[in-house]
Amino acid sequence: MKDLIMGYATNSKFDDFYRFVASIRQHCDRDKVDIVVFINALGDDFAKVALEKNITLIPVENVWKLVTSSKILNLLYHTKMVGLQALIRVSSGSSRTYLEEDYRSTVANWVHPLAGRWMAYHTFLKVNSCYRMVMTSDVRDVVFQASPFDDLDSSKLHVFEQAGIYYGQQHKENIDNEWLRTVYGEKTLEEMFGKATLCAGTVLGGNPLMMKLIELMMLEAQCHRRKPLDQAMFNKVINYEFPSNQMVRHNLKNGSVLTLCGDHEGVWGIHDDKVMVDDRLVPVIHMYDRNSRTKELFFNKIPTPQK
Q1: Hey, which residues does 6 pair with through a beta bridge?
Q2: CA count, 13 A, side-chain hemisphere, 125
């Protein structure tokens, strides 16, 4: 049974897209791992790479940027969503199901892409349900050094800590405090004090558990569509709603993903053109462009083709 990597990349720069997909395909054979990228129309260069690397591009349209700059469009979308919610409450059977799907689709198109992507993932997995393990990933700042699925328990959800950032901690990069406060309020933030922040941008797990997570994230996005900060929603879901016995929390030392934000200095090193942690090759490097050494390394290792 094959594994799956999904990314969401509206308005992606070609170089970022190329480093993402080329690095995956270098280490994940097409007979073992499928790659799906949700993307808007960005030109022939993207399509050529997709054909060359055996990548499926799924077209998505997101009007968040357009709507946020137009009071009229914002009002129209808001009116439609409120109207659909009212109809859902008084409907039943197949009519209710149709209205719920229409509402979810409307929210997905309207909210910020980082929240809307969970709905796109859900739609895809409903009709592509036979994968063994699934990874959801950011695209812009993620590169692969090996397969992320090796040696992982497929019966668990795998989530990854950011580097030394905790809720309540005063840290120059700790924007997570403000994100959580914005969505859920001061009380929830206080309840989360001391908990390590987990990254919503890279998650792996067995297919059924990933589907459970995606459904929970989708519900949060619909409930908080005015403040759809998916990092805050993700940490709330993981800490309060997802079963802890079905999940593994990985820190920087033992995870298959190394996220280079916060206090990560001294945790990793570069040896023979590879990023290592305690002499262990880390399969996935997230936010590689935040460090000058890793940025230079991967820009040189994965040069983009001439257009």
Answers
A1: 36, 136
A2: 26
- Select from 5, 260, 47, 297 the least CA-distant residue to 139: 5
Nearest to 118 by CA among 213, 34, 258: 213
Strand partners, 57: 37
What is the mean predicted confidence (pLDDT) over 128-137? 97
Alpha carbon 98 to chain centroid distance? 27
Q: Residues near 145 by Cβ (< 8 Å), separated by ≥ 6? A: 23, 27, 274, 275, 281, 282, 283, 284, 285
**Sign of the CA dihedral with 176 first, then 179, 182, and 187 last:** negative
CA distance linking residue 264 with residue 160, whole number of Å = 13
Task: Give me the pLDDT at residue 165, please.
Answer: 84
- For the cut 70, the answer to whether the pLDDT of residue 173 exceeds it is no
Are residues 137 and 285 in contact, defined by beta-carbon separation less than 8 angstroms? Answer: no
Please tell me the distance from the alpha carbon of residue 154 to that of residue 132, in angstroms, as a whole number.
7
Task: State both tokens at 303.
Answer: 């040069």
Per-residue pLDDT for 60 more than 80?
A: yes
